[in-house]
Hints:
Keywords: Cell inner membrane, Cell membrane, Membrane, Transmembrane, Transmembrane helix, Transport
CATH class: Mainly Alpha
Membrane topology: Multi-pass membrane protein
Main location: membrane
GO molecular function, one term: lactose binding
Structural class: mainly alpha
Number of helices: 15
Pfam families: MFS_1_like
Amino acid sequence: MNSQKWMSQHYFIFFMAWGIFLPYWTAYLVHEKNISIESASLMMSVGLVLRGISTMFIFPLMTAKWSQKVVLTIFIIGSFITAILYIPTYNYSAIFILTALLSFFLPAIMPGLDSTAGLLVQKNGLNYGRARSYGSLGFVVSVAIASVITAVTNDGAMLWMVIGYLGILLLLSFKQTPQVLLEKPQMVSAQSSFKSILTAKNFMWVLVIVTLIQGSHAAYYNYGYLYLEHLAVPKYLIGIIINIGVVFEILLFAVADRIFAQWNVAKLLILASSGAILRWFIVFAIPNPWVFALSQALHALSFATAHYAFMIFLTSTMKATQITKAQGIYSAFALSWGTAVLTIVSGYLYNWAPNYAFLAMVLCTIPALIASIYLKKTMKTI
Length: 382
């Protein structure tokens, strides 16, 4: 099986489901399940905590017992079944439980795919940037479809789209798989323990920086859709505006391996944190839909460059046996727990004044820039 094709297909279909869950799920809970913004924020925050647990502990623990392919399939099945259970459910407590379960299963697929990509980079020479750009393309396609369908019908269509995409991803699980992903895990050694990873040279510095940068997307991910509604943007245009960011993300990933070939990780993190500061300040200072749309171009820096920097750090400094756990740590802190804390903070500020949610994001990215500059000056090896 061609590794590049396999990875690209899985990224594409997974991110079609992610293209609904990430930007739209809070709005889905509010509009279709009659959940208040505060309660939906709490649900998503609890979900982020569980997401961190599943990606940092459960997924790596399972890959220590079974092959990468088997573990990915288990999480895909869990996501698919949970999504189906939403159909008849309107009870608050039941929705809370389902949101927690979906947040446990679905997001774990992403670091699972990234750790899989890391193995394929090392073993099969995978071009990570090119494969990951298919994920971003899937996100764009999904958001575009959602914009049209929800404008014609209602936000309830979001659930059916998630179910459909997860069904396709499940079918893909039965296709031929690269041999390295079918191999049973090697015996766990001290070199692949959490302690060995956390104490590895520069790991904690890089982790703190990417946690601040990626966490700063909390207001955008959870309230971006609602904020654009607040700015009186028509539903069909909201999807287009959200897609602008992902288009620039695609462009970045497509050329990253070439244009950043001579860049070290610290320099990439300086670029990412600078882009994040500029992006959130513009959105805060000028609450205007056209300005918001223009700021979306900076997603290539605030998200994609930070993510690419960590993947480069991972594949260039970690052993193959460490990649899954290191990816889990990154996903737990940078993409889950940090975002969970800032979701609560930004939710409080959003209720006070919607644009102030983005001011909090500016304040958390300034330390990331300072730390990145310090990293560049003192640790020249990366």
